[in-house]
């Protein structure tokens, strides 16, 4: 008996297919929406996939190993499920996405191609672009704080606490301890570790100096 994948591959090999792509999108709030690049609605597994929705996949890179596969979803906001206000409010951020190849004549003939999540969403001239991030991309997510010499707060946020009416606010901050101290006088809220030893210090051996008061690091 021929498997479903074999039959769909035979369609592709013939050069004339009735295939389309369908996206099942599950938002963080639990709402589930379906989209397809076919010109009419399709239904399977209890979900209707909106046709002529403007959804499309410009490119999908399937990486091997632990590398992060990624691509980009693009489309026009022509679907009742999508609106600029929803996208700007972050309702679609990090939504789970499942991609299917479907025979629009018989949606029971379908193959699951990939899973991922939406990354950054941008809007321009009534169209959206959203990063497609594969499962391995979550391994690149920073969890918790990073111990770096520079501050990891944003100028003016709750952790920084520099007021927007500060005379040098518009000059910005490069997140260095020097700028925090001399431009904003805000070292009490500095969220970095300016005296964090570098690799050279960590691998260096003990010196022959008898006086070890920190003077070599400018802290005497």
Biggest beta-sheet profile: 9 strands, mixed
Order the strands across the largest sheet as they lie in space. 3-4-2-1-7-8-9-6-5
The helix/strand series, from N terminus to C terminus, equals: HEEEEEEHEEEHH
Number of DSSP-assigned strands: 9
Distance between the termini: 81 Å
Count of helical stretches:
4
Structural class by secondary-structure content: alpha+beta
CATH secondary-structure class of the largest domain: Mainly Beta
At CATH level 2, the architecture of the largest domain is Roll
Mean pLDDT: 77
CATH topology-level name of the largest domain: Pnp Oxidase, Chain A
Q: What's the number of domains? A: 2
Radius of gyration: 26 Å
SSE layout:
Layout (H helix, E strand, L loop, with lengths): L3 H11 L4 E8 L5 E5 L5 E3 L2 E4 L5 E6 L8 E7 L7 H5 L7 E8 L6 E15 L2 E7 L43 H6 L16 H5 L17
Parallel strand pairs: 2-4
Antiparallel strand pairs: 1-2, 1-7, 3-4, 5-6, 6-9, 7-8, 8-9
Which properties best describe this structure?
4 helices; 9-stranded mixed sheet; alpha+beta; Pnp Oxidase, Chain A; single chain; 29% strand; 220 residues
Structural notes for this entry:
With 220 residues, this protein is of the alpha+beta class. The chain folds into two domains: 4-140, Pnp Oxidase, Chain A, CATH 2.30.110; 143-205, no CATH class. The protein has four helices and nine strands; from the N terminus they run H-E-E-E-E-E-E-H-E-E-E-H-H. The chain has helices at residues 4-14, 84-88, 177-182, 199-203; strands spanning 19-26, 32-36, 42-44, 47-50, 56-61, 70-76, 96-103, 110-124, 127-133. Strands 3-4-2-1-7-8-9-6-5 form a nine-stranded mixed beta sheet. It starts with a helix and ends in a 17-residue tail after the last helix. 16% of the residues are buried. The model is unreliable at 61-69 (pLDDT under 50).
């Amino acid at each position: 008996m021929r498997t479903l994948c074999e039959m769909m591959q035979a369609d592709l090999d013939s050069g004339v297919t009735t295939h389309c792509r369908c996206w099942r999108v599950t938002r963080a709030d639990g709402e589930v929406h379906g989209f397809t690049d076919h010109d009419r609605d399709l239904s399977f597994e209890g979900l209707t996939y909106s046709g002529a929705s403007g959804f499309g996949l410009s490119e999908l890179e399937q990486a091997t190993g632990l590398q992060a596969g990624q691509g980009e979803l693009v489309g026009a906001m022509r679907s009742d499920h999508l609106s600029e206000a929803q996208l700007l409010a972050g309702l679609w951020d990090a939504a789970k996405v499942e991609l299917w190849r479907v025979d629009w004549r018989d949606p029971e003939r379908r193959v699951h191609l990939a899973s991922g999540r939406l990354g950054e969403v941008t809007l321009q001239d009534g169209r959206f672009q959203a990063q497609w991030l594969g499962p391995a991309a979550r391994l690149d997510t920073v969890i918790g704080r990073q111990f770096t010499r520079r501050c990891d707060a944003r100028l003016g946020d709750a952790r920084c606490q520099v007021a927007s009416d500060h005379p040098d606010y518009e000059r910005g901050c490069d997140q260095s301890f020097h700028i925090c101290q001399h431009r904003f006088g805000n070292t009490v809220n500095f969220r970095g570790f300016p005296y964090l030893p570098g690799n050279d210090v960590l691998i260096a051996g003990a010196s022959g100096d008898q006086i070890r008061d920190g003077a070599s690091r400018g802290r005497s």
